[in-house]
Design a protein that fits this description.
This protein is an alpha+beta fold. It contains 13 helices and ten strands. The strands form three sheets. A four-stranded antiparallel beta sheet has the order 5-4-3-10, with helices on both faces. A four-stranded mixed beta sheet has the order 6-8-9-7, with helices on both faces. Strands 1-2 form a two-stranded antiparallel ribbon.
């Protein structure tokens, strides 16, 4: 049965486009104008209020440099510059997916990360529309929401960074919130819900709360679920058919290509590829390894044809994970036409 999830992604504000992508609409752009960084407050100057009102009437309207510099608050000017840059990319591409691909392919990931994460959120909401497995949806959150990682007791527990931080700031420091915010708290005290095969149906009623936890250990269903999400990501955006398998370790005497799925994983994979062994502490930061087979071999560069591509996720030294899903799109060993 088809279930609703991630209403906060904004899918309802967009329209269907050819190929299953999402067409940009005025309603989608208006949602950005209601964000607190943009919406005027009591202290806003007349120029800021006037510009906001004009954009609310027509979110595609051109904005002049004079209109921006007339705003008194320089932070608001910067916010508008970022928003207009994103708005123009969306309008030029016509679709959310097309705009996202254009941004990451040009290597201009200078937009605020929150904008990129929001685009990934709604793209995945579209691509995963028919998914009925809540574990796959929770694993997909890793692509657009930063995670806090705990590796106590041999488990690899991922909880939403914003939720963990909220627990810390509000003093509600119990169970997994405390475990992930501080070191040394036993896993047996977990009180937030760890999503498993047995209880995964609880996800449907709280998908927009981002308050469930997954165990990403090898052999656990969440790691396989993440592999399926990455397959869908590549199929939806590139039309590329791949098979991704979690692996317990990386062993390949003829290793040809790898992709780090975050900054730390990229650094560690490069180090391994160059024959430099990381120390035990560094190696322990790798929390997910995958072997990807590109089934459409004709699209692969000659040097990698017939060989797998290795993927990795790694936590940062301060136990965070911020995946960069665009790495999967721009670092593939595909022929130039792709």
């Amino acid at each position: 049965m088809k279930r609703e999830f991630w209403k906060s992604a904004g899918l309802h504000l967009l329209a269907p486009a050819p190929g299953g992508w999402l067409a940009v609409t005025p309603a989608f752009l208006l949602a950005y104008l209601t964000r607190p960084e943009i919406h005027p407050v009591a202290e806003s100057c007349a120029a800021e209020v006037s510009l906001h009102e004009r954009l609310m009437d027509d979110p595609f309207r051109a904005v002049t440099e004079a209109e921006l510099t007339a705003i008194a608050d320089p932070d608001v000017i910067d916010n508008y510059r970022h928003l207009i840059a994103l708005r123009d990319r969306l309008a030029d591409a016509g679709t959310v997916e097309g705009a996202y691909l254009d941004i990451v392919r040009r290597g201009e990931v200078a937009l605020p990360l929150v904008f990129l994460d929001q685009l990934v959120h709604v793209i995945l909401r579209n691509a995963l529309a028919g998914v009925t497995d809540p574990l796959r949806l929770r694993a997909a959150e890793v692509l657009f929401r930063e995670q806090r990682v705990s590796t106590d007791d041999g488990r690899i527990m991922l909880a939403d960074e914003e939720i963990v931080d909220m627990h810390a700031r509000t003093g509600r420091m119990s169970g997994l919130g405390q475990l992930l915010a501080e070191s040394g708290t036993p896993v047996r005290q977990v009180t937030l819900d760890v999503l498993t095969e047995a209880n995964k149906e609880i996800y449907w009623d709280r998908s927009d709360r981002f308050d469930t936890v997954i165990d990403l250990r090898f052999g656990e269903p969440a790691l396989d679920a993440l592999a399926r999400v990455m397959e869908t990501w590549l199929a939806h955006l590139l039309g590329l058919e791949v098979r991704i398998e979690p692996r317990p370790k990386l062993e390949d005497a003829d290793w040809r290509w790898h992709i780090g799925l975050d900054r730390e994983a990229t650094r560690l994979l490069n180090k391994l590829y160059e024959g430099r062994s990381p120390g035990l502490e560094e190696a322990s930061r790798i929390i997910g390894l995958f072997r990807m087979t590109i089934l459409e071999t004709g699209r692969v560069i000659e040097r990698v044809q017939g060989h797998p591509v290795y993927l990795a996720l790694a936590k940062s030294p301060d136990d965070r994970l911020h995946m960069k899903p665009h790495n999967l799109l721009v670092n593939l060993p595909l022929r130039q036409a792709d």
